[in-house]
Amino acid sequence: MPLLLQATAAFGLEAVVGRELTALGLPPTETEDGRVRFEGEPVDLVRANLWLRAADRVQVVAEEFDCTDFDQFFEVVGAIDWTRWIPYDAAFPITARSVRSALGHVPTLQSMAKKAIAEALCEARGDAPGSPVPEVGPPVPIEVNVRKDHVSLLLDTTGPGLHKRGYRDLSGPAPMKETLAAGIVLLSVWDRERPLLDPCCGTGTLPIEAALIGRNMAPGLQREFVAEGWPLAPPDLWAEQRAAATEAALPPLDSPLQGGDLDRNAVSAARHHAERAGVGDDIHFQQRPIAEAGSKGSHGVLLANPPYGERLGDADTVHQDLAALFNRLEDWSAAVLTPHPAFATMVGRKANRRRKLYNGTLACTLHQYLGPKPPSLTGSPV
Ligand SMILES: C[S@@+](CC[C@H](N)C(=O)[O-])C[C@H]1O[C@@H](n2cnc3c(N)ncnc32)[C@H](O)[C@@H]1O
């Protein structure tokens, strides 16, 4: 029987994750705010962890039921065959969240689930009720998620969030999550044949994620996942899929992408991260202000996450410089993520699409402008 799996994602990125899953041959069966469900075999949870770029984590949906009463919750959780998921000696840390539900007290959800699962594991082993479970083996983290009186018991297969690719070890003024950066690249019209410029790239997240996409490099190749210790997805499955992902990487990009920033430290952090991500030769980073940025390339894509707020300087000037840069790049497309209310007016033309996305907790708009298609896509004159 296939597993029911779900990829969680930041609000606004669900459709991107759905498209990524479809490309992996795992079409979504259900999409809701913050999560996309799909079915698959254990190998598919391995592939989803290694390849999904815009998702936060991959979970197994172990069980689901409607419930409004704690006694009933304890009974149903205790009646589940947990030996299918949790080896007897595994640690099973439990987190819980509850939204608009009668089972609203999160600590009670946690402690009841813990007790019910421990008792079920003991009973399955024939131990006396109330015997302690050792919890010394590789962890199987469990999330009790209650939404509108519907309980989902979720096993986290990822561990630290998927944004932790393994290449970032330096911080910058306001780095963006790798999953959000990848989502923006995937929402844009950029592909590996087109130039790309991020004129305020900070620690390099947008161009690095673009280069990884352009080279078909799996974002999870450099890290480990919590499910690597599980009998459900044994080590040879991970090794096999890692080898396949390494094989799938494309050669370096024909022309390097461009990243720029005013801040010298940010530029050197960006170079350092690109090297660590394995795309050091695919991006040219330069210390320069937006006002001096430009490109000789045509039909490129401008991506930017300009500074906003007092901490990051004079946001108006930066946004004006960015709007002017985009207007200089005549046949380019753009995707700019900002909460600045006047950016659209500064550009002076209507965006083709505006999407609400969150950068951390900051509500932003992704302004998307579509330039003309490159001649290779429209049919070039002979
Ligand atoms: C929100 S941060 C970008 C973060 C980046 N996306 C990352 O993931 O690290 C904005 C960046 O704009 C840079 N910046 C501010 N004013 C600038 C200007 N006039 N020209 C170029 N870069 C500028 C800051 O140094 C900062 O690194």
Molecular structure report:
With 382 residues, the chain is α/β, with parallel strands linked by helices. The chain folds into two domains: 3-156, 2-Layer Sandwich (VC0802-like), CATH 3.30.2130; 178-215 and 250-378, Rossmann fold (3-Layer(aba) Sandwich), CATH 3.40.50.150. The chain contains eleven helices and 14 strands. It has helices spanning 14-23, 42-51, 70-79, 106-125, 178-187, 205-214, 235-248, 264-277, 315-328, 343-347, 375-378, and strands spanning 3-9, 30-32, 35-40, 55-66, 94-99, 142-147, 150-156, 196-198, 257-261, 283-287, 301-304, 333-338, 353-359, 362-369. The strands form two sheets. It has a seven-stranded mixed β-sheet. A seven-stranded mixed β-sheet has the order 10-9-8-11-12-14-13. Strand 11, helix 9 and strand 12 form a beta-alpha-beta unit. Helix 5 (178-187) packs across helix 6. The N and C termini lie far apart (55 Å). The mean pLDDT is 95. The structure holds S-adenosylmethionine. Residues 44-157 form the THUMP domain. One of its GO terms (molecular function) is methyltransferase activity. Pfam families: RlmL_1st (PF22020), THUMP (PF02926), UPF0020 (PF01170). Keywords: Methyltransferase, RNA-binding, Transferase.
Briefly, what is this?
With 382 residues, the chain is an alpha/beta fold. It has helices at 14-23, 42-51, 70-79, 106-125, 178-187, 205-214, 235-248, 264-277, 315-328, 343-347, 375-378, and strands at 3-9, 30-32, 35-40, 55-66, 94-99, 142-147, 150-156, 196-198, 257-261, 283-287, 301-304, 333-338, 353-359, 362-369.
